[in-house]
Structure formats: C-alpha cells, structure tokens
Amino acid sequence: MKKTTLGVIVTNRAFFPDKFVIDGRQEILKILARWDIDVVILEETATKLGAVESWTDAKACADLFRRHRDKIDGILVTLPNFGDEKGVADAIRLSGLNVPVLVHAFPDDISDLSTSNRRDAFCGKISVCNDLYQYDIPYSLTQSHTVDPQSDEFKAELGKFVGLCQVVKGMRSARLGAVGARPDAFKTVRYSEKLLEASGISVSTLDLSEVFGSAQKLADGDSRVRSKLEEIHSYADAKNAPPASVVLMAKLGIVLSDWMNENDIDATAIQCWSSLQNNYGVNVCTIMSMMSEKLMPSACEVDIAGVASMYALQLASGKPSALVDWNNSYANEPDKCIYYHCGNWAKSFVPEIQMVAAEVLGSTLGLENTWGAVDGRTDAGPLTFARIDTDDRKGRINTYVGEGRFTDDYLSAMSGTRAVVEVPGLQKLMRYVCKNGFAHHAAMSQSSVASILAEAFETYLGWDVYHHEG
Asked: What angle, 0 to 180 degrees and rounded to 10, lies between the N-to-C axes of helices 208-216 and 243-263?
C-alpha cells in the first residue's frame, strides 16, 4: 500500500493532568513511527504541550495542516484526557481538509481515579464527536469507546483507518479507462459517467480501432515486443499457445500500457469480446491479468463500475482484486456458489496459471481466435466482495459489500478462472442484488476489508451501502 500520512491532533483540557498529554503524545507518535506512518503534528513548543485546546491553538494547527494538505491522508484525534472538543472541531474546519477523521480516547486506570490521575477521556470523546457532528465533519470511531494504544486492538484500528484513508483518497481522484464499447447485449454494465465524476472518478475512453492500429505498427522483432513476450512467458504457462497469438498479445499489452501511462490511468475496463477476436484474433485476458497483478486492475466487458469496485478493494487491502460472475449454484448448499470468469484473474488468485483458449467464447468466435484466456482455481482463504453501481434514475451511487471465504470444495472441470465460495446468508444477498438492480458482476479480494469499504463509501463518499453480514 502507498505510504500514509496522518495529521495528528492531541487535545487537552487544562484542569486535567498535563502528564497524560505529554506521555500520550509521545506514545502515539512512537506507535505511528513503528508502523511507518508519517505524521503532521504541532511542535511541542508551538502550543502548550503541542496540544490543541484554545482558538489560538486551533488556528495554529489548521495553518500547519493547510501547508501540508497535499500529503495528509487522514486525521487522528487522540484524547489523553478529556480534551477540548471545540478546539478539535475548529482546527479541522479551519484547515479545510476533507479527509477521514478517527477519534481515539485513552482508557482510565481503574485502580486510581484520584483528581491527579483521572483522564475522563471516555466522556471527552462524546463531546468531541458532538461538536464534529454539529460542524458537519464526518468522522470514524474505534470499535471500543476507549482503546489502549499499546494493544492489538489499537493496531487493528490503525490498520483499518489507514485502509479507509487510502480508499477515500484513491476513489476521489480515480482515473478509469474505458477501452472500446461495451458488448451490445450487456446493458447490465451501463453506468453514469456524471455520477462517478461527481465523486471525483474520471473516465477516459479509447476506441479499439486506435488500439489495433497502434498494435499493427509494432514490428514483431521490436525490442519492446520481445521484452513483453519474455514477460508474458515468465508470467503464465503459454507453451500450448500459438506463438503468433502471443506476439499479438504482447503488442496489445504495449499499446494499453503506453496509453495508461500517458493519461495517468489507474484501472481499465476493456471490451474483451467480440471485436478483439473478430478483428485482432486473440483474447486480452492474460494482459488484463498481468495488469491486475501489478495493482492496475482491469475488468471485462467495459464494466467501469466493476473496475471501480476492483480499485476500491485494492485500495482497502493493498492486494490485487478481480472481477467475477456470481455464476453457479453449488449442489444443495444455500450459502455456497461458484465464482467464474473465462478468465482474467490476477496470478495471485490462480498461482498455477495457464494460458488457454476461451472455450465459451470460442464456441461462437472460433477457438483459434480466443487464445489468451487464463485458466486456474483459487485456493481456500478469506474473501471480500463488493459492487458499485450507478442508479441513474435516482441520481445515486449504490453499493454492497460483504465477506465470506474461498473453499477447497470439489469442483468439476471448468476452463477459465474459478472458485467455490461460501457466503453466510447468500440467498438473502442474492435477493438484495436482484431486487435492487445490481449487475451480475462483483469484485473480489483475498482479504477481510468489507467494514473499511462500507465506512468509506457511506461516511466519506456519501454513497448508499448495503453491508451484508449474513
């Protein structure tokens, strides 16, 4: 994951013990340094104890944050004692930052609640949140009301918040590439560019004729083509693929990479059929798989909303994501189903990866024109799934997120990328998906980050969220 920088506000209230502010500030800074998180914080000499308590302190903190606004990903508010709620809210408002805010409070020592040893941060946190609410500043909370910074619980909360910051920052500036027109039959993947743009997500387009034209200008012996061929062969077992088809894939990969670099594209959704097969002679799946493995997610069938879902999952987890079909029921087990695509999943999902011809598409387009698909099965492990869709009639972005697991249950022969998954309450989820007009595609990740996505989407991006929890 990209390195995270947090603006840190340590707050104080004068009639509570200063020792907690001094020690708490140092403790938090040491923990953030331990986890390689950069900080922007008032110097100890800038205000009393380097904390925020007054209007003057708030102005100083806000000025500091404004000077570093381009690098601050989120704000950590920590209360070693009761703290000053107004100072916190004023500092954030004056800074003009629109980033996630985590409110943390230290626990009291129940063995000594004398005046000289009381924190009262338990109560102070309520007041801070009250003022943030009044100021209309979105904020996040730790699961427990107070948390010891040295605990594993705080480590987990910090990890979650870092992922949350990455999702919000990434989605608000995402640049997605739509390569080709969507397959005519797939109205399911239509989306509103304007609704996405309103959330900061831009879409750039590229016609397939430009891709084919640029690819055809590359000579087979070009040094870049040879280098890309080596990369393909080291990535997947392509011994059965016709050499000429692999050359076509290499040229395709170069053209797509050049366009993405020129336009700062974060992720792509490609018309994977049927123009590619009919007019160029290969599948683009292997190239898409390679891009996703490099954390440049790529989705099928020009599903821009689908690749936005993939990108969000990648930002939350720091791992490759993939686009899947909710494809098949599994025996008589209501909480299990089969994920499938023909396929372009990243190598992380299918370690024993092989390049094949796409049997399903090949049945109508000719197997010889569909080399480049990926074959393999995902091993057992954690699963997070997510879907972003635009509801144009209501002018809203709708999402769902949830978790389950990949299983090692029996699966008969299928050509393509595939997995058996178990999702508690799957039938309830499928009813929700169908009743609310979601596409048949979803994004998946080998992670457990549904709560991160749910909070990022709802609290900070303002989208409608269904968080499936069985």
From this structure: 120
pLDDT in tens, 388-397: 999 999 999 9
Beta bridge partners of 75: 7, 101
Q: Which phi and psi (to 5°) does residue 52 adopt? A: -115, 120
d(Cα 468, Cα 247) in Å, to the nearest integer?
Answer: 44
Taking the C-alpha atoms of residue 133 and residue 125, their distance in angstroms, rounded to an integer, is 12
Q: Which backbone phi and psi does 371 adopt, to 5 degrees?
A: -65, 145
Alpha helices in 152-268 (DSSP H): 152-172, 193-198, 208-216, 223-235, 243-263
Taking only the tens place, the pLDDT of each residue in 239-267 is 999 999 999 999 999 999 999 999 999 99
Q: Is beta strand 267-270 parallel, antiparallel or unpaired with respect to 175-179? A: parallel
What element of type H or E holds 396? strand 396-407
Q: For 23-26, which contacts have Cβ atoms below 8 Å and span 24 or more sequence positions?
A: 23/80, 24/78, 24/80, 24/81, 24/106, 24/149, 25/49, 25/50, 25/51, 25/80
Q: Where in the chain is the domain with CATH 3.40.50.10940?
A: 5-172
Q: pTM value?
A: 0.97
**pLDDT band at residue 84 under the 50/70/90 scheme:** very high
pLDDT at 2: 79
Q: How do residues 362-388 score in pLDDT, each as one tens digit?
A: 999 999 999 999 999 999 999 999 999
Q: Residue 302 corresponds to which amino acid? A: V
CATH 3.20.14 residue spans of the chain: 175-468
Please give the structure tokens belonging to residue 299: 């989705």
What would the CATH number be for the domain defined by 5-172? 3.40.50.10940
Q: Which CATH class is domain 175-468?
A: alpha beta
Task: Band the pLDDT of 17: cuts 50, 70, 90.
Answer: confident
Buried-state track 22-39, b at ≥16 Cβ within 10 A, e below 16:
bebbebbbeebeeeebeb
Question: Which backbone phi and psi does 360 adopt, to 5 degrees?
Answer: -65, -50
Measure CA of the first residue to CA of the last residue in the chain; give whole Å: 29
